[in-house]
Amino acid sequence: MSYQKRVNYHAKFEPDGNYILHGTGQYDIYNQFDAYDRYRQALSKTPPLMSIAFIGLYNDIRYDIFAKLITTHVNSYASNSFILPQIGIEFCKGELAGSNYEKEVAEGKRDREIRLLMLAMKTIDRPIFMRPGYGFNGEWNGYDPVDYRLAFRRIKTIIDEVKCDNVSLVWSYNPAAIDKDYMKYYPGDDCVDWWGIDIFQTPEESAPYTYTFLADAEAHHKPVMLGEATAFRYGATLEGWQKWFVSFFNYIKDHPVIKAACYINWDWTKYAKWSGWGDCRIESNQDLTKLYRNEIKDPVWLNDTDRELIKKLLKYE
Predict the structure, then answer these.
(1) Measured between alpha carbons, how far is 85 from 49 in angstroms, rounded to an integer?
(2) Which fold has domain 20-313?
(3) Tens digits of per-residue pLDDT, 284-316?
């Protein structure tokens, strides 16, 4: 099966032409960008362009240090490299029940933190994709739809105030959540650059909610980013290839509105909370690595191989 020709809506940092941004992660406070690095080593001829990280709006976080960590990471490769940070902004503390603070963001009580974060992001000379309150409909987050919408808009307002022109905002939905009514969380076309969706179960398991979401994204003329995806329950095995990866790639091939996809290259078995998800690291299975390499080498994938071409395609000056 071949890839359908991609749409072009000219959204902020949407690649111009028939391309899909290729990304992976994720950042860990202890191992930092190790998951990204190992995935990149496994796919050395088609290195990933985007790198996933996460941050919260807490008054005890040094955003300048966070920005320096990212800068050190993205500058650690060849001069022709141009890695793009993809950052999820939490509106709660690690999915802890009752820790959500989207209402405080909406009411302006976290403006200082947002401003410091965006000023720090301005120091990183490259496009940055941000997903405020990612998985907004997830019951594990507990976000109120009205407060969430206002919180998202508050972030957009401060981005404009401090002229943080290198940030593109992604509205990120999780179809695995109980609440499927995503539009009640929508902040509006005027402050959303991309629509986003997270894929853990296979797309077929999440249907029809993922297909409806993609159709609505097209109606709003917004490109879609698969902000997080991992071979949930199967891991990086040959069975996983047949039951998860084939479905995942076919899903991308069939939907031209998808213009970015990030795979979480993670060994979930090390964490009690997610141990049943499996070892999803591409490099952990040589046979799967070969199959994966063969898929990513399609020219539709925009990889980290040509700095000036990437800047041109994303219209980044």
Answers:
(1) 9
(2) TIM Barrel (3.20.20)
(3) 999 999 999 999 999 999 999 999 999 999 999
